[in-house]
Amino acid sequence: MVREIVKDKLFLQIKSSPAVTGDEILLDDLMDTLRANSERCVGMAGNMIGVSKRIIAFYAGPFVIGMLNPKLISKSGPYETEEGCLSLDGTRKTIRYETIEVEYEDRQFQRKKMKYSGWTAQIIQHEIDHLEGILI
Q1: What is the CATH number of the domain that holds 119?
Q2: What pLDDT band is residue 136 in, cutting at 50, 70 and 90?
Q3: Is residue 109 part of a domain?
Q4: Who's near 129: CB < 8 A, 6+ residues apart?
């Protein structure tokens, strides 16, 4: 189901709770909402659709990837960039890392670990910040 985009900064600054069994439907909603906004958005976190759960979805090339309970476990190659956000007006400068390693659970709650670099790594870092209540 496609949901409305939350723009309430106070809500967006609340740290998200872990995703649990049964939250897979929220991942589906997040992925549907990302696809519906694909012309202006490349990634989303649960709180962007009103759900304070540790759930993200993002584009990796033509594919939409969903992660439950993601966390960065390593990062290297810091650089400064400027980002926008569907939940916020304008763009802001931030520091990101060229290469990251993420530990997360898939929709069956099987633990996974993946390395990402470049644009995809930047998107994931932005969405994980959302889960921590960090706004760019």
Answers
A1: 3.90.45.10
A2: confident
A3: yes
A4: 135, 136
